[in-house]
Design a protein that fits this description.
- This protein is α/β, with parallel strands linked by helices and about 220 residues long.
- The chain has a single domain (about 1-220), classed as Thiolase/Chalcone synthase (Peroxisomal Thiolase, Chain A, domain 1, 3-Layer(aba) Sandwich), CATH 3.40.47.
- Helices cover about 30% and strands about 15% of the residues.
- The protein is built from 8 helices and 7 strands, in the order H-H-E-E-H-E-H-E-H-H-E-H-H-E-E.
- It has helices spanning about 1-10, 25-30, 60-65, 95-110, 125-135, 145-150, 165-170, 175-190, and strands at about 35, 40, 70-80, 115-120, 160, 200-210, 215-220.
- Strands 3-7-6-4-5 form a 5-stranded mixed beta sheet, with helices on both faces.
- The protein is globular.
Length: about 220
C-alpha cells in the first residue's frame, strides 16, 4: 500500500495543479501518522478545494470546437445499493466495479490490456490496489504485487494515476471526476509534459461513491 502512495506522490511532482508536489519516499509514507490501522496519513487522500470543467459535444460538432478532440468510447455505471455500513460482501471484492468495467470495455470494443493510462479513485492506497484487480489490469489478489513490480507505473503494463491521483492531487469531491477527464484529455493530446504517457491512445477514468457504486469512462484520441 505504501508503494501506491510513493508512486502517486512522485507522479504529482510534474503536475502544477496537484495539492502535493513534493514527492514522497517509502520511509516518509511508512513513518507517517497512523489514521486507522493499517492506513497511515500518506495512504489517505487529502480533502481539498478545486474546480475543473469540460466541454462535451456530439462528434459532428467536436472538430469545430477543438482542433484535436478526445472521444468517449465507452461508459458504464453500476449501483448495487449498498453503502459502506451494510455492505454484504468482503470489502476486498468490489463486484460492482468489475461489472462496470466489463460493460465499459464492451461498449468501447477493447479490453484491459488496451488501456494505456488510468485515473482511478485512490481515496486510499488500498483502493487503487483493489481497483487494478477489478478493472482487469491484474488477477484478483495480485494488486499489491502489481504495484510492487512497477506494472502500474511508467514502463509497466498501464500507468495508473499519472496525475498523482486523489492521494497527491487532493480530492475536491465534485471536481475530482472532471479533473480526471482533464488528465485523459491532455494525455491523449500529448500535452502532459513531464508526466506524458508515451504513445497514449486509450485512457480510463474511474470514480466511486461507496463500495457498491462505480462509474467508468473510457476515452480515445482523435485518429
Amino acid at each position: 500500500m505504501a508503494l501506491v502512495s510513493v508512486k502517486n506522490h512522485n507522479h504529482s511532482r510534474h503536475n502544477v495543479f496537484a495539492h502535493h508536489q513534493e514527492g514522497a519516499t517509502l520511509d516518509q509514507v511508512m513513518n507517517s501518522k497512523l489514521i486507522a490501522s493499517p492506513l497511515k496519513l500518506f495512504d489517505c487522500s487529502t480533502n481539498t478545494d478545486g474546480a475543473a470543467g469540460v466541454i462535451v459535444a456530439k462528434e459532428g460538432l467536436a472538430r469545430d470546437l477543438c482542433t484535436q478532440p478526445v472521444y468517449i468510447l465507452g461508459t458504464a455505471q453500476i449501483n448495487e445499493g449498498y453503502p459502506w455500513a451494510n455492505y454484504h460482501k468482503d470489502w476486498s471484492s468490489w463486484p460492482a466495479l468489475r461489472k462496470a468495467g466489463e460493460k465499459a470495455y464492451a461498449m468501447a470494443g477493447i479490453g484491459p490490456d488496451d488501456v494505456d493510462l488510468a485515473e482511478v479513485h485512490d481515496c486510499f492506497s488500498i483502493s487503487e490496489i483493489v481497483e487494478c484487480e477489478e478493472l482487469g489490469f491484474c488477477p484478483k489478489g495480485e494488486g499489491g504485487r502489481f504495484t510492487e513490480d512497477k506494472l502500474s507505473d511508467y514502463g509497466g503494463r498501464v500507468v495508473v494515476n499519472p496525475s498523482g491521483g486523489l492521494i497527491a492531487c487532493g480530492h475536491p469531491f465534485g471536481a475530482t471526476g472532471i479533473r480526471q477527464a482533464y488528465e485523459a484529455f491532455v494525455q491523449l493530446r500529448d500535452e502532459a509534459g513531464e508526466r506524458q504517457v508515451p504513445g497514449a491512445r486509450v485512457a480510463l477514468t474511474h470514480n466511486l461513491s461507496g463500495l457498491g457504486e462505480h462509474h467508468i469512462l473510457i476515452y480515445g484520441r482523435d485518429s
